[in-house]
Structure formats: structure tokens, C-alpha cells
Amino acid sequence: MSIIFLALFGILLASASSGKSFSQAWQLYTEDCSSDTTASLSTVLHLIINTLSTIVLASSNFFMQVLNAPSREEVDKAHAKEEWLDIGIPSWRNAFRLSKFKTTAWFALFLTSIPIHMFFNSSVFLMNARMGDFHVTVASESFVQGEPFYLPGASLMTREALSNTTVDYAYYSSGMYSTQYPLPAKAYFNGNFSGQARNVSEAAAHAPDWHKLEPLECREMYSKGTCSGLTNYKSVAVIIKGQGWKRSEVWNLSTTADRTWETIVPRSQINSVWISQQCSMHGRSSGGRVSDVTLNLPFCDSQCLQLFDEPEAGDTWPPNEPWIFNVSDWYESSHMSYWGTHLFNTSLYAAPGNKSQFGLRYDSPYFDIEAGSPFMEISHCLAEPRNSTCSVALSKPLFFAVVLSILVKVMACILIVKVLGKQESLVTPGDAIASFISTQDDSLYDSGLLTQQFVRDNKSIALYHALGPQKWANKRRKQASAVPRSVWIGTYIVLMLGIILLTVAFRFQLQNHMPL
Length: 516
What we know:
The chain is an alpha+beta fold.
């Protein structure tokens, strides 16, 4: 145990001298996530940890057995008080009837075993870099074939599609699209959208070389269902079936609105982009109250909800179900009014002859109709690969707790050897037999055979039978009969409760799409 302590203490000093904060993890080894080296190293380190913890706990357990076993002197004192002590088994009865030093040392070894059980394995773990911000380009199949695009896309999604200059409530409260407001229309008219144009141009140039994801895989990866972040990919192009959209066939706008949009989104030209947005996903805690108790529950805050939605609670997406999004959902607040004010800019989105009517053609030939709502079907995704790094890391606080626990164990064991000295503990029944043969008990009590059945019978009734010589009856007995029925029942109850708890936790993990 002392050698293990010195080795672990050296590792702790090395981690502390790494120059980073004590609360930060120490990265032992870093490699590209495409390699299996980090996973293999983590497995080897955990095997070593399990071996070391087994040695430490076995050594500690031996000392605890010795401390829990009475000496001959303590047995004689108990007999003088007409009490008995257990020999050969771990006993709570003994713990409070032996010397205070033994009891204190036993509890010290017991308590220092808890951090080793709980923290040693957890102190070494795999760590990878994940990102939650990503750019989404929703485009047609012709987008990756070089078809021109005109921003903000065929959806004409700008800030004015959702609110006018005085009312921002609908967009603010819904959190429908992204971490930022859509750009205002004047940004496109004045040419102040270079960042968005650069992102879409890069997607158009490189998306053919990106990794193709099937709809279900893409939906699960970028939705808030798992909220586990992106490890192998970043930006994504969501490809909709079809070759693009003409504004004249998607929108029915007033003469003023049509002339305004003509300068940046020609009405008769094919536009290969529907919308382009910067999105994000990140975890946070949301407060809730149950019976006047405040709970901080984990919650995934994912923008782009209208595209990367999530299945119903406790459900999953059917593998063969097509991935569609309802077009009307993108503008669901545009044909509402708030305090009597229209939530869209009528000079940009109003239909001809009726300023209160939103100009989107819900009967456009580009849309399919299901349950009275227009929708478009997604063919696949093209995800941009990213070079992510994985590390095998050491948690310094957890590792410190383990090293400190082993130090206390080493000091306790040294003190036990010094204090107990040559005192012989009756650890096994054989030790007790040898002791009573070599030094007989001077008491005047009668001796005789004492069986499990004799003890159980006299425990349940108030009659006591005197011990004395008995004729030995050679009977075949099952080994299980040595353990009382109440012990069997209690043991299986604990095991069944553990299995039920694990089953409930596993089902909760599956329902909430939490990674294992």
C-alpha cells in the first residue's frame, strides 16, 4: 500500500506542476479523435486503476478484519459480563464492544475506502472538444451543382418577416430560428451581409466534398434531442428535394414589394438557397418547483427548432419516416397581430390589394400539402468535417481525494501495528479454538455442542436448555442452511431494489436520449 501511495503521490505532484489551475483537468495524452489510441489508453489506465484499488482495498480489508476481531482478553471480559462476541465474520456487534482504538481505527479505514470506490475510476476520463455553434444552409439539390443563389434565400427571411420596427415580441419569445435575429432587410439592400454570403459561398464551393448524412442521422445529430454537441462535424447543408425556387412561384407580393425585392432576389431566376442561418445548441439548467422545492433541471437550449426539431417525449423518429418541415411554421407569427399591429413589414411581404394578408403562396408548386399545411421534404445533409482532438485527462481534485485517502490508510495501518503490537486477534474460528485449547476458560459454565438451530430456538422462546454432552448425529445438511432465512430474504431484497433502480435509470437515459 505504501508503494502505491508513493507512486500516486508522484503523479499528483506532476499534475499539480502542470501550471494550470487545480480545478482544471490535466491532459495526460492528446490525439486526433479519428484514432483509437486515446480510447485504448483510457481502457489500459482503468485496468491499472482497478488493479491498484483492489490491492489497496484488500490490504485495508485485512486490517479491518483484524480490528473487528476480539482478542482473548476481550473475549474473557465479555464472558465475565455474560456477553458474547462474533469470531470469523464482520460484526457490527463487535465494533462497539471492543477497545475504542480498534473502533476508531476501523471507522477510519472504512471511511477512507469510500473515496477510493467512488472517485478513483472517475478521476481518469476521456475528454473531447465539442462545439455548439454551427452554420446551416437550407438549399436545393442544385446548390451543390453550381446553381446561383440570392440571399436571403427563396424564403425571403429577414427580421421584417416577423416584426415591424415597434414590435419584436413574437420573435423574441419564440426563439424559433437562431441565436441571432435574422438580418434586417436593409442589410441585404445595402450589401451589408458579407459574413452570411461568405458562409454560404464556402458551403457551395466545398459541400460536394463534405460527408453525406442520411436524414435520420443528420436530424439526430443537430437536433436538441441529445444536446451532446458536435464532435466530428460543424456546419451543415440541408438539401431539400428539388432544383430550386423561383420567387414568382413562391411569393405573391404587392407591386411595391415585388419591385423592392427584384434588386436582390430576381423574381424569375432559380434560387438554390432557401435560407441560411447561424444556429447553436447548449445545455443549461432550468428552475422548477415541486412541492415548494426548487429544482435545477438540465435543459437543452437549441436554436433552429423549426428545422432541427425533436420527437415527442419518450419517443424517437421512425427510421423510415421522411424528414419534412412545415413551411407555414417558419412564418407562423407573420399573419398574427399583437396589440392590433401586424407582425410583418407590409411594404415587403404584403399580398396584392390586401396589406393585412401575408404574401407567401401556400399553394406553391414547390410545396406538398399534408393535413392542409404546405411542407418540403429533406433529401439528405452534407456535413462539414472537423478535426477534433480527444484527450485522456486526470481530474486533480478527485485524484487528490484518492491519494489523501490512501495516505490516511497507510498512517492508520502503521499506527495499528504499533499500538496492537503482539496482541493476537481471534480472526477465525480456528484462532479461537487454538486459544481455548492452549489456555482453557476458568469459568464454571458447562460446555457442550452449540448449533445454529439451538441458538435460533432459544432466541424465539423464553426457555433455555442447559448445555451438556450430546450424542453426535451425522446428518446431511445443505450449505445454505448455515445462513438464516431472514438474511437470505434481506439480501435478495437489496439486490432486487438495486436492479429496479438501475432499470429505471436506464429507461430514463433512453427516453431523454442521454449518451451512455
